[in-house]
Amino acid sequence: MTPQRIGVYRYLLENRTHPTVETVYQALKADSPSLSKTTIYNTVDTLTDAGLIRVIRVGEGEARLDGEIIDHGHFFCRVCGNVYDFDLDNCHLPQSLPGFRMEGFDVHVAGVCAACAEKD
Amino acid sequence: MTPQRIGVYRYLLENRTHPTVETVYQALKADSPSLSKTTIYNTVDTLTDAGLIRVIRVGEGEARLDGEIIDHGHFFCRVCGNVYDFDLDNCHLPQSLPGFRMEGFDVHVAGVCAACAEKD
DNA sequence: TATTATGATGTAAAGATTACAACATGGATG
DNA sequence: CATCCATGTTGTAATCTTTACATCATAATA
Ligand SMILES: [Mn+2]
Ligand SMILES: [Mn+2]
Ligand SMILES: [Zn+2]
Ligand SMILES: [Zn+2]
């Protein structure tokens, strides 16, 4: 655990907005100007392999980072681009895949969020 | 509907392997050498907007194309990179998002497929 | 036939991620 | 303490994927 890794992990725990690598980079660079974006990418790999964070790819463009590792769903608004969490109540892992080793789970819903839907 | 669009759509209906744009391009180029990869990208947009196909981004790297538009889940094998379909039995759209307009739905599971798991 | 609209093509540019070499750091060893 | 060694960081370049755009082809329309 290095200051850089702690910084990225802490940022993701405190900002549950599913930020991009670029967003994290810009935010942390304010405090540590020598920070490199490559370090963010390396750290994301390290933290992902350690099971501390996860990377989700929803919609288009950059990958989004998530410090919440408990299973939950993601709603992607195609208007504002925000990613919202939601609980998975009646959604269970499929039992119908014999021999398959399941390691990760995610539910993606795309559409228009409440804030953007109201602006019509 | 142009010959190129029909070709891409037909390829996706006949090949349920979630191919990449590059794979579709290489396959169709054999029959129509003048085909451009940009046309594949444009056609994917057109077919997606028309609701005939869908694009999924699972794992790393290129986007995967899917001619099956009925809701189903996707299993991504991190070893061989294949994407497998599975049925969604007890998985319903979440009701707990008031005001959100839902348009698309997908379940992503990552892990090791049966074929790759057997090789250990 | 001339016009026009739409789509296809090829190249260039943009955007996102990875590869890699050089540098920094901090602990172990003598 | 001085040296060595392992690991992590940094900056740049390269790669990979996708998009932008100008040009060409095609077919329908007037
Ligand atoms: Mn989340
Ligand atoms: Mn599928
Ligand atoms: Zn929105
Ligand atoms: Zn596999």
Helix content of chain A: 25-40%
> Helical stretch count of chain A?
4
Our Rg estimate of chain A from Cα atoms comes to 16 Å
Taking pLDDT < 50 over at least 5 consecutive residues as the criterion, the unreliable ranges of chain A are none
Ligand roster: manganese (II) ion, zinc ion
Strand content of chain A: 15-25%
CATH superfamily of the largest domain in chain A: Winged helix-like DNA-binding domain superfamily/Winged helix DNA-binding domain
Derived from helix and strand composition plus strand pairing, the structural class of chain A reads alpha+beta
Gap between N and C termini of chain A:
47 Å
Q: Determine the oligomeric state from the structure.
A: homodimer
Give, in order, the helices and strands of chain A: HHHEEEEEH
CATH-derived architecture of the largest domain in chain A? Orthogonal Bundle
Number of separate structural domains of chain A: 2
**Going across the major beta sheet of chain A, what is the strand order?**
4-3-5
Q: What fold name goes in the CATH topology slot of the largest domain in chain A? A: Arc Repressor Mutant, subunit A
Largest interface, with counts of residues having CB < 8 Å to the other chain, equals: A-B, 37 and 37 residues
Principal-axis shape of chain A: flat
How would you characterize the largest beta sheet of chain A? 3 strands, mixed
Number of strands of chain A: 5
